[in-house]
Write the structure tokens for this entry.
Amino acid sequence: MNKTGYIAARLLQIVPTFILIGLVVFVLTRLLPGDPVSAMLGDRATDEAVNRLRAQMGFDRSIWTQFLLFLERAVTGDFGSSIAYRVPVTRLIAERLPVTLTLTGLATIFALLMAVPLALVAALNANRWPDYVIRVVFQVGLSSPIFYVGLVLLTVLAAWLRIFPVGGFGETMLDHLWHLFLPAITLALSFAAVIMRNLRASLMEVLEAEFVEFARAKGLPRQIVLMRHVLRNALITTVTLVGLHIGALLGGAVITESVFAVPGVGRLMVDSIFARDYPVIQALTLVLAVIVSVVFLVTDLIQMTLDPRVTR
Amino acid sequence: MRRSFLKASLATLIVASGVVGASLAADAATRGGKMIYARYADSLFLDPVLNDANVDIWVMNNIYDTLLTPTADGVGVQPGLATKWETSDGGKTFTLTLREGVKFSDGTPLTAADVKWSLDRARDPKAGAWNSSLASIDSIEAKEPGTVVLKLKNPDPTLVAALATFNSAIMPQKLFEATPGATPEDKAKAFAEKPVGTGPFMLTSWKRGVSMTLKRNPNYWKAGEDGKPLPYLDELEFQIIPDDSTRLLKLKAGEIDGAEFIPYARVKELQSDANLRMELWPSTRVRYLTMFAGPTFKDGKPNPMANVKVRQAMNYAVNKDAVIAITTLGLGKPMRSFMSSTTPLFVGQDLYKYDPAKAKALLAEAGLANGFEVSIYSLSGNSDDQNDLQAVQQMWSQVGIKLKIEPVDNPTRTARYREENFQMRTAAWTNDISDPSQITSYFAYWPNIHSLHSDFKDPRIDELFEKSQRETDPKARAEQYKEIQQRYNEAAPIVYLYETPYPVAFRKNAKGFVQIPLGNNLFEAAYVEK
């Protein structure tokens, strides 16, 4: 199978996945106790007010009727209005998604910049002091709770030294990057720790492989052996790991988002779940599913380039 | 009676907010500039009639005005868009004189027709959750220029307070009707995106869940201390920062000028920070535990809390002062009625002084000498709930009551509550109106929501309440409320805990903010010194 065919097949697989995700999310949100109306009207509403609003929003219809209506509209790109905010869901998501994408992108870049060189150093000095130092530091990074790391960075670098803003997102592009620096570093620390450990292990494995021995014996320069043969081969499993982690970051950076007051989709999702804001939960899940699928596809393509066996 | 009460509560207000009062009196206000205020959650829907939550109610007065407004102490009303009001025809006609020369923020003049239309919209029984506050109105007549006559079905002592409450805010009829939208609800959604009112500010941009920018309304009618029109600020920005620590860090770093909902644990620290000013505004907020008091629970099991002795025992077994010390670090004070001490017609009693021996005796009288087990829904992740309940759990264990804590999320708790499928739950209340009728109708008057869905029913309270809703003699009404409170407090269908102030903090140079006991955030006279 060639590359284009492979991509087409993968894209086709996505369609049934989405319908399934849509159905599961739709049913699950409705299985939660309480509905948007009770979340909205709070403790004080009378039964009369609750029933009136429930009927107005169509929640008195059967769940299947509601699902079919949802599908019918979703196909045309109409995800309805947020129940809590009373504005189109697409607008809410469009406001938040760039923030999350930028944050995830930055965190990934930072993580790779930290992890890859250090993993190389650690692997080449396996079980000597540089290796120990790097492993201990990352162990701390990995085991510290994110909200704690975030708060420490905020208190020291933002509140005391005033090098960075405490929170928010800023106005211009440069300002955005400036505001996202600390949250991205916070996310990158634990992310980098995972990559470093994984990459170090596979580097050490590859370093002992026969083909590396052979390359060295052929008299290839050290740099070329390391980059073209060792790193390239060791990265194959790491790429998968990075892809998975990006997927988790997209919707799961909730703690970082709230500590740094970053208006991303993680917070929107959590708020929407607490408000039982069905339309937002549904649309956001689907949008995130699309992005995660694309990330996985890209991951696979990179893997294919690194290791041509994947397509066979 | 009413006046002496007013004086007394004014005195408490001044004492309670001593620092605030002093700093306000001393300086002249700075004009211009921008204030950034951090809120813990964003508003949802800025429509006076169709909104549902405090996040809307507490800030809407910066955009819309009401005919009358609550006084800063929260127990009285003062002129707003109306300068004069009088009753005639045995209390069945209510005539309001509108302030002259008032304009909406878009420059169009306020008319009697706008007032009639706004009140008709607010009292439509099919619209919103608040229409019952204006239920006594039979018809409204607009007499241009500047007079509005309300014909009432019956005399209504709560009407004055109702006309000072957010849902009777005045909106521009023509502009609203010209707003695109197929249904009134759609129009309201579109209008609330760019609301036009007569309030001190205009909403100019709103990123949901992130920030809200309000600009000075150049047409605002109220004048500042310098004789020129308010507000002092050119711009007011609300930033939404749900995380308590981040909100405080931003305040300390000077990135924002003020912040709401300071956690009790941080109040002392902020009080000693030379750059900040901690403000504790008297509130109508009460914290209590709700219980189901009907004979059997939803699952058919008999309910020990149906017995008044058991409910009293539960109250005697709680050391309110200890709970206050643990949860509020001493900032709260014990509840002395089901309504807060800042509510008009409040009558305070020393309720259920901590007495475990008496609690045990009462339980024994109720045939529960060995105690009983009861479960309570708390809000997961809420530290106040956690602190309160752990203290209560420990205190109750001494008299044999085993409290099982079940943390759930808010919609779950509300749904169970509404189905009356609960044993106990945590709760808090703030008044929306400067009158005791609202809280009483929810807590004590069965026909509304079965007395906080407890199923507690006292026909005498119901009768007194109905009478008080038409009572035009203030003295007689106060007597009715005294009896209602005494009867309810004796029957104890809640576990009484404490009242707390609203804790907000500002940078030293940011002044003039007022939060009234109902919760409304007033920024019209706020300013930032250069």
Observations:
- Chain B has two domains: 2-190+509-528, 283-499.
- Residues 1-26 of chain B have pLDDT under 50 and may be disordered.
